[in-house]
Amino acid sequence: MNKSDALTALAALAQEARLDVFRLLVQAGPEGLPAGQLGERLGLPSATLSFHLKELRHAGLVRFEREGRSLIYSAELANMNGLLAYLTENCCQGNPAACGVGLCDGTKLETPQQRKPS
User: Fold this and answer.
1) 33 forms bridges with which residues in the sheet?
2) Residue 37 vs residues 15, 21, 25, 78, 110: alpha-carbon distances, Å
3) Domain of 23?
4) Less packed terminus of the chain by CB within 10 Å, N or C?
């Protein structure tokens, strides 16, 4: 990911409803959620939800697939991981593992409070 892509993604996430949509899609995993269910869970009218999903798609953070008459949205986890990698590439003097920073790969990240003293 380059600086321009990172800025676009961060700008898309810098709005409360879009951040809520993205977090819900990350929680849903690769299977995603139908647009109607997203709107219901977040209390967003369909026109408002459509606008926010368009912005997230433009930023490369979500995608959709058509299943019959439904649009199923899911988070673009590879792009999310790219953003996280871009933001943390120089973490802890270039050693993100030393900070406990990881990507969305199914592993649990330790918080500083959970780490054992060395």
Assistant:
1) 73
2) 20, 11, 11, 23, 32
3) 3-78
4) C
Chunked mean pLDDT (size 10), the chain, 118 residues: 96 97 96 96 96 97 95 95 86 71 49 41
Q: Which helix (H) or strand (E) holds 72?
A: strand 70-75
CATH number of the domain within which 58 lies: 1.10.10.10
The total domain count for the chain is 1
Q: Could you please report the per-residue DSSP string of 7-53? A: HHHHHHHSSHHHHHHHHHHHHHGGG-EEHHHHHHHHT--HHHHHHHH
pTM summary value: 0.80
Consecutive H or E run containing 66: strand 62-67
- Whole-number Å distance between alpha carbons of 77 and 106: 11
